[in-house]
Amino acid sequence: MKQAYKDVPELNEIKSKGEELERKTLQFAETLEGSARHTGTHACGVIIGPDDLINHVPLATAKDSELMVTQYEGKLVESVGMLKMDFLGLKTLSIMNDAIKNIHRRHGVKIEIEKIPLDDKKTYELYQRGDTIGTFQFESEGMRSYLKELKPTNIEDLIAMNALYRPGPMEFIPTFIRRKHGKEKVEYPHPLLEEILKPTFGIMVYQEQIMQTAQIMGGFTLGKADILRRAMGKKKMDVMTAMKKEFVEGAEAKGIEKKNAEEVFDVMQEFAKYGFNRSHSAAYSVIAYQTSYLKAHYPAEYMAAVLTHNLNDIKKITFFIDESKRRDIPVLGPDVNESHMNFMVNEKGEIRFGLAAIKNVGESAAESIIREREENGPYQSIFDFAKRVNLKSVNKRSMEALAMAGAFDRFENTHRAQYFYRENTEDTIFLEKIVKFANEYQIQQNSAQVSLFGDAEEVQMVDPSLPDCPIWSKMEQLNKEKEVTGFYMSGHPLDDFKTEMQNFCNITINELKNNKQNYLNKNISFAGILTGFAKKTTKNGSPFATFTLEDFTDFENFFLFSDDFLNYGKFLIDEVHGKPLLVKARIQERQYKNGQIDIRISSIMLLSESMERNTKEILLKLTLDNIDESFIENLEKIIKESPGSCKLRFQVTDLEDNIDVKLPAARLSIGASGFLRNMDLLGDIEYKLF
Hints:
By secondary structure, the chain is an alpha+beta fold.
């Protein structure tokens, strides 16, 4: 405050002549100056001392915990002789542990992860392809791009890339790559430094290299070299100036020219801004290599472990399921006859969803189901299942969740809608009747008398008949799955609309969310499932709406104001909640607020109607080779099964003579949506919409 009074004369005037509230405010500010605004606890910092810490630093009890913390600020605690260490807890270690269990369960192989070879060809091929999604430290898009260029062949390459891929040193990655592949000559600041800089092709990457340079050229002790490293990293100019003089003098004593020594010191100073701790990078890179080794050799088992440990992040789960499918590893829904607690890999190499991950099932119910199955064999039917499980653990609520998730789909001649069928509105659902039946069976079983010959009397109860009712629509089934698992298991609501999206969408929601600036002042169109809607009122009483759309890539929230709400709000009411929508919009700067971007919606329609509403004519581009008897038969079949008002035209090309013939639409009218959905029957035919 004293400095503030000197620099700002107005404050002095307020302090002496200002209003009472203003004077009191300054008085309170002087009283509070220097006080701690709040206390915090480092996420992983641990203080180590020679004996009981209370003898060396002031201690306090952490907020909402019995944990003891030092009252010194973190940066100061080392200055009083304490050692501060960061102990990080990594989810990656749990992923590896589960992956190793998955491998042992399926293959009978016990992986000793600390003993795997660090020169495994298959693992480095995975890095060279940039196939590192789901692995530790190397899975970002930018890193994968650099890995494809670098084509790492040893652990040193990975350690260096891990250290370089961060703000600042990233600018040296292209140089590192060129030098590795011999496209650029490797140069060293001084011949004495060749040995320590050879693994990084003459580039100072690590803090340890800076310290070694100070030792080798400047004659510094290890302790003094560490002080220099810290001073450089924290830009302490006074310390660096003094130590530069000492470094140059030490180098001159070894016969190194002053100018050369100063140049090397300047290089050290530049790289110290970015220099990363090699031991840290090495430790992380070894763990990263271990995850990649598991993914390279046992991809299904590894991805099952990755999925298990990302269950709370729906976006990541969807991403990793897509990655598994990309590698031709199917990810199946839960099954009471195959699933374990968490994601597992079955005998066919398919990943199976875990029972404990289903909402309202829980670990107790999952354990009960798995234990009974392992002790007495697979469940034969829903009635066999209900009669055998512990109904205290696996209650009606658990069974409902299992049914909605598809865990009973294996049972023959049953479908999910049957479990929730009611004969009338006042009746209970059929699943509740199953639970009641099973309860009665278990009571009779437990009270059965033992015969004279020591055999238990067999309880005879006829299983109820399954109700005859319509199956759920695909949309209803997918929504139920998402309700209990968090995402769509047996498909996606947009799967049936890929043709519409291919023809009428020019952006995904993920691209829209992350790259709005690239589409400024452009018209966009995108599709998604309506997953949220709320009608609200502005301060002046005008209605507006917020709604959420989700596609294969991401989800985003949107707004409808004034006339837009009146025009398009009808598509957001409950009757169409969950249905696919096609949205057209324009991205523009918000009026009077430069830099802020608006998505101005210009049209909303049901995606199911978009093809018919937007398509007046379809032009099929054929070659003479396409047209044979089978083609004609399939074309006739598709036309008959796709009634509508869209015109169909043909363009036939003779490739030998390079002649095009366009045939008029005549009387051929079709339903555009149905026709295009069945076009695969015609083979690989090019078409154009008008």
